[in-house]
Design goal:
Helices cover 10% and strands 36% of the residues. The strands form three sheets. Strands 1-2-3-5-4 form a five-stranded mixed beta sheet, with no helix packed on it. A five-stranded antiparallel beta sheet has the order 8-7-6-10-9. A three-stranded antiparallel beta sheet has the order 11-12-13, with no helix packed on it. The protein is globular, with a radius of gyration of 19 Å. The relative contact order is 0.11.
């Protein structure tokens, strides 16, 4: 028997495998996520039949390199309680918070259990830029940019947040982007 989706709860994905009594490494016997929809586009869930012993595509092995996420891709963000499916272009800012990352999107924010360096490796560097040691900014959400007295850049985002670049990253940004 393969995995199946339960359509009783319209805003919930429930996946189970009745053939496995315990979850093997890389597998879950049941996943229950309440999903907050931030836009009106419907979620299409395709669940494929899998043969026993093959890893799921969602689980990455250590030796495989993660794919770069572009602006038209979507990602499932989860903090253990809440889950969102968010388009990459809707993420405005990522901030470091200890060994986690605070992701800002729409008017919400979510703390995920990934380091800022892990997030930076997955994001497209033509859209996202590391402004400082603790911040990555989405360049498509920049409303206004200005140069401060100490030669640092400051970006005002569409949602009103201000991001101040480090001195080194300001020089690098101006050199690579032609400002």
């Amino acid at each position: 028997m393969g995995r199946r989706a339960c359509k009783i709860f319209p805003y919930t994905i429930f996946i189970s495998d009745p053939t496995e009594s315990r979850a093997a490494p890389g597998y879950c016997s049941a996943i229950y996520f309440p999903i907050n929809y931030k836009n009106s586009t419907p979620l299409l869930v395709a669940i494929q039949e899998e043969s026993v012993g093959l890893p799921t595509p969602a689980v990455e092995s250590e030796e495989s390199e993660a794919a770069i996420l572009h602006s038209n891709d979507s990602v499932l963000l989860a903090d253990g309680i809440k889950c969102w499916i968010v388009r990459i272009e809707d993420i405005s800012l990522l901030e470091a918070c200890f060994n986690c990352t605070l992701v800002h999107f729409f008017d919400d924010r979510l703390l995920i259990r990934r380091t800022l360096g892990d997030c930076e490796r997955r994001l497209d560097n033509s859209t996202f830029f590391r402004a400082s040691r603790g911040c990555i900014v989405n360049l498509s959400h920049v409303k206004q940019s200005r140069l401060l007295e100490d030669e640092r850049l400051s970006f005002l985002l569409n949602d009103g947040k201000e991001v101040v670049f480090s001195r080194r990253q300001s020089v690098y940004f101006r050199k690579t982007r032609g400002l």
